[in-house]
Amino acid sequence: MSRLDELIKELCPDGVEYKTLGEVATINRGVRVTRDMLQIDGKIPVYQNALTPLGYFDKSNRKAFTTFVISAGAAGQVGFSDVDFWAADDCYTFDNLNGLNGKYLYYFLQTKQSYIDSRVRKGSIPRISRDNFEKLSVPVPPLPVQEEIVRILDSFTSLTAELINELAAEIEARKKQYEYYRDKLLSFERKM
Fold this sequence. Notes:
Elements: H1 3-11, E1 18-20, H2 21-24, E2 26-29, E3 44-47, E4 55-57, E5 66-70, E6 78-81, E7 86-87, E8 91-95, H3 102-111, H4 113-118, H5 131-134, E9 137-139, H6 143-185
Parallel strand pairs: 3-7
Antiparallel strand pairs: 1-9, 2-8, 3-4, 5-6, 5-8
Helix pairs in contact: 1-6
């Protein structure tokens, strides 16, 4: 029996309670910053309308280990920051978590990506409303169960990243090998 199975058997033998996300988190909209306020490099990333930082700022408005969702532009993309960051106005954050681990929420929202994508209003600028998250039903097992789930998924994430790096190196080596043999096989001496 795995550690997770043991925790579930011990801490929630009768099943897991579900609550709406609005019951267990405060969903906040970020605060606007303009491009001229941002730096190219820095410690505090600014998330605006994509999971790639728009730039860097000299202060943060959200703490590390916070889950967020882009609300416009790349609307519906789910992110997680393990450093303090600035949530700009096209970014919803899930704060004041009551009985929820922030990373557990991140992984859970990833399982709901199809639902989230289906709620994005398409237009010149795709958008998603906060209401779609407030009503979302979330399983809320005891924190030790959530922490074990996060540990397992973090391990898989790390392993996947390592494999991707190894595969990229292998692909690069095969590409060089191919180029070497291509050039060698297609190099002929000219007839005189």
